[in-house]
Amino acid sequence: AEWFNFDALNFGPDHPARQMQDTFFVDPVGSGLVLRTHTSPVQARSLLERELPVYVVCPGRVFRTDALDATHTPVFHQVEGLAVDRGLTMANLKGTLDHFARAMFGPEARTRLRPSFFPFTEPSAEMDLWFPQKKGGPGWIEWGGCGMVNPNVLRSVGVDPDEYSGFAFGMGIERTLMLRHGIADMHDMVEGDVRFSEQFRAVI
Q: CATH no. for residue 55?
């Protein structure tokens, strides 16, 4: 629903993401139904359906009106992480991301945060990954977005931001696999070619 995808996440009524050129609306357009453009709506759903504290990691399919090329497709997958509890800080977020990076990319992997903006987090950051196995030599690569849950998001689901804080992060699953395995074209992962899939055995 549009409420979960935008309103509950502090997107203003005139935010560009609400435009039809960026979002798939379900007919009729005024129905309030959209195909979700990110996995962040799970933040509001989880906080409405679960008792605090909340710690969830949720993968899911998302839909955007992206042009088709080697790194973009209208349907792809993201994974969303959300933690809401008493006393959580950016330090908890950074530690979680570093642990996640090492689990996915090996013991030398680490993350760094660059200031950014998302309506549903404040402060917000882009996260970069230090990837030792990067083609052309070790280096930083953009991996996803993150930040502390915006107090307006907490209020929208009845959580007192003076008592609870939280962090959230999200990244593309296909993009993560492309980085990890040196895959040049995202579409190879969804075309169903068994020869391609067999390269990875149980790794994917």
A: 3.30.930.10
Whether 108 contacts 98, CB under 8 Å: no
The answer to whether 38 and 22 have CB atoms below 8 angstroms apart is no
Q: Give the pLDDT confidence of 33-49 residue by residue, as tens digits.
A: 777 877 788 888 888 89
Structural contact between residues 75 and 82, judged by C-beta atoms closer than 8 angstroms: no
Domain contains 146: yes
The total of structural domains in the chain comes to: 1
Q: Look at residues 80, 77, 37, 87 and name the one whose alpha carbon lies nearest to residue 56.
A: 80
Domain that holds residue 98: 38-197
User: What is the value of pTM for the model shown?
Assistant: 0.82
- Backbone phi and psi for residue 41, each to the nearest 5 degrees, phi listed first: -55, -20
SS3 127: strand
The two tokens of residue 182 are: 């040196």
* 120 in a structural domain: yes
Q: Is residue 18 part of a domain?
A: no
